[in-house]
Design brief:
Shape: elongated
Distance between the termini: 9 Å
Number of strands: 0
Largest sheet: none
Strand content: under 5%
Radius of gyration: 24 Å
Helix content: over 70%
Length: about 325
């Protein structure tokens, strides 16, 4: 396991280099001039040129990328073009919000998805199986932004059980944090729950028909013990693989959900940075997002190795 972790962390270095190079190149091709956005429409060309030079945009992009890279390897991701805030500080301030939302959505997906898939697999072809399958189909078809709007109207505006907008940090009030994160997490995690339900149902139906499960039942073991102790572990192998991909999807989907509920996470920060052509801030968001995704994949691989000893590196 330690060897696998070391290999993934080493491979992260060239990956970050390639991602940063591509991001820097693409943002350089965007139309418009950040200096014009900073000084405003009433500024003279001389003022625009002065800000353009101050930001270093008069330099060729290979030189600008090299300057950024030499600072980035030392932990300095630069300074925002618009408010002179350190990019590292801005990203780290918003990162816990997005991670909190994503983790809460994962919990929602696991509880609903695995629960529904397990119930459906225990009686394949029955009414619970058909209901779970229909629910999974609907859950996959619902756009998360539409579901977020419906949840906000019903449970925030009409019933007023939860706040419609905003985010309360966990350190300030666990109760208010839970209230502020519930609706966004449900909106974000429903689609992943539907996919996990289908995968869990399919995997469990196959495992429950294997010889070792039949042998366990023939020995007089209870159905609960057979399912939870013997069948569940093997059935979770494909589910873990799907979950790893879904976490990446959830990180991307958080951008939209954050906009609906006015949650100030990485999503809203990224949208603002792109609109303003704030290249250092865009770079910072992308780099940190890549690191989070790679670490998530690493944790998933370690979990997969725990569930399946044959997949562990020698």
């Amino acid at each position: 396991m330690l060897k696998l972790a070391a290999q993934r962390l080493v491979a992260l270095v060239p990956l970050l280099f390639i991602v940063s190079l591509l991001t820097f190149s693409i943002t350089d091709l965007l139309p418009g001039n950040p200096a014009e956005l900073i000084v405003g429409d009433d500024a003279t060309q001389e003022q625009v040129d002065l800000v353009h030079e101050r930001l270093g945009l008069d330099q060729p992009w290979p030189q600008r990328y090299w300057d950024w890279l030499t600072d980035a390897v030392q932990g300095d991701l630069g300074t925002s073009f618009f408010n002179s805030v350190e990019v590292t500080d801005a990203v780290l301030l918003r990162l816990p919000v997005t991670l909190s939302l994503t983790l809460a959505a994962v919990v929602v997906a696991l509880i609903i998805g695995i629960g529904a898939g397990l119930i459906a697999a225990l009686r394949p072809g029955g009414w619970t199986d058909r209901a779970a399958t229909a629910g999974a189909t609907v859950g996959q078809a619902l756009p998360n932004f539409w579901l977020a709007l419906i949840l906000a109207v019903v449970f925030a505006v009409k019933i007023r059980w939860f706040p419609a907008t905003g985010y309360t940090p966990l350190t300030e009030s666990p109760t208010e944090w839970l209230r502020s994160i519930t609706l966004p997490a449900i909106a974000l995690g429903t689609g992943a729950a539907a996919i996990l339900a289908r995968q869990t149902r399919s995997a469990m139906v196959g495992v429950l028909q294997t010889d070792y499960v039949r042998a366990a039942r023939a020995q007089g073991l209870s159905s609960r013990r057979v399912v939870l102790k013997h069948a569940m572990k093997n059935a979770m192998l494909p589910v873990v693989t799907v979950l790893a991909f879904q976490i990446t999807v959830l990180l991307g989907g958080a951008i939209i959900v954050e906009q609906v509920f006015a949650v100030n996470g990485l999503g809203s920060l990224a949208v603002t940075a792109v609109r303003r052509q704030d290249v250092p801030l865009v770079q910072g968001v992308v780099i940190v997002s890549v690191i989070v995704v790679v670490l998530t994949q690493l944790v998933t691989d370690l979990l997969y190795g725990y569930l399946n000893p044959k997949a562990r590196p020698s």
